[in-house]
Amino acid sequence: MEQIRVGVIGLGAIGERLIQGFNANKYTTVQAVVDTDKERASKMAEKLGGINWYNHHMKMLAEEELDLVYVAVPPKYHHAVTMDVIEKGVHVLCEKPLANSVEEAKEMFEKAEQAGIIHAMNFPLNYSSPANTFDQMIKEGYIGQLRKLELSMNFPNWPRLWQQNDWVAGREQGGFVLEVGVHFIQLTQRIFGSITHINSRLELPKDTTKCETGVIASLALANRTPFLINGMSQIAGTERIAYTAYGTEGSLSLIDWGTLKGGKLGEEIHSIENEKEDTSTLIDNLVAAIAGKESHLYTFKDGYEAQIILEKLRDK
Ligand SMILES: NC(=O)c1ccc[n+]([C@@H]2O[C@H](COP(=O)([O-])OP(=O)(O)OC[C@H]3O[C@@H](n4cnc5c(N)ncnc54)[C@H](O)[C@@H]3O)[C@@H](O)[C@H]2O)c1
What we know:
With about 325 residues, this protein is of the alpha/beta class. It has two domains: about 5-125 and about 280-300, NAD(P)-binding Rossmann-like Domain (Rossmann fold, 3-Layer(aba) Sandwich); about 130-280, Dihydrodipicolinate Reductase, domain 2, CATH 3.30.360.10. Helices cover about 35% and strands about 25% of the residues. The chain has nine helices and 14 strands. The strands form two sheets. It has an eight-stranded mixed β-sheet with strand order 8-9-10-7-11-12-13-14, covered by helices on one side. α2 (about 40-45) links the parallel β2 (about 30-35) and β3. α5 (about 100-115) runs antiparallel to α9 (about 300-315) and α7 packs across α9. Nicotinamide-adenine-dinucleotide binds near residues 10, 72, 122 and 124. This is Gfo/Idh/MocA family oxidoreductase. GO terms for molecular function: nucleotide binding; oxidoreductase activity. It holds the Pfam family GFO_IDH_MocA.
């Protein structure tokens, strides 16, 4: 199989993380990188063996022959940058959230479909075996009939210490509802189907440039099963993210992304061994899709559907 030539736009914490993934896959080669920060771009290019680097994505798109472009710039630039990649007709992987508004997300999905390219989103929970075990146990009836879903997010620090940048704590394109909530909204849509928004309230600081410090939201699944979201930042304690499904026969939680806990009615809640093999990675699935083989990708359609709920939760 021929090497898949990858261009990466945006070399922050996350861009760098996926570059490691592309390096680890024997079918993908990072051929060029872009960052508006020239020093960051040149250093990364050097680290990758002296590959080409650019400080504008249009220059890379004009000069490089690429099979796939990965967009890892901050959310408010996803639309502009990704639309240029779509225009060029190159397969595209975009970071979540897909865009910074429903209109942008819709246009990105529609244009990517029209272009006939592969379009994918980086929603890592879909490739995590605990999340997939959660899905499987729900489908096998571990909790019986679902009565309520709950997402609780507690952040002592927002932004988290590993993600200090100039946008993630801003109201325009940051906040934990957008950054973290999106993963569980998409996972809910995947496992349980469509969601409707009933009402929500954000706790917002007086400084209108700063993101929410709290959210309480009431959503519902298609059959009216309630889905509650409850989040707070700048609080005592440790970070904890718990996604719980309560059913007629028991409950099941995915805690801190990778731990499964649950119990049947009458039992204590206990840890549940995750017996699934590690699932294939996002990059394995991109490689398969580009080779025309069967693959499991979450596309701009999934990003767009999640964005509809996200924008209802955000008080823009
Ligand atoms: N999938 C996940 O699990 C996950 C987790 C965290 C963040 N993210 C997403 O990843 C994206 C990047 O997040 P991050 O934490 O790495 O951000 P970051 O701010 O650390 O890095 C972004 C980089 O993009 C560069 N940049 C900004 N505008 C650009 C442009 N127009 N062209 C080229 N480069 C540009 C910046 O100079 C910076 O180096 C965001 O969309 C974020 O929501 C995804």
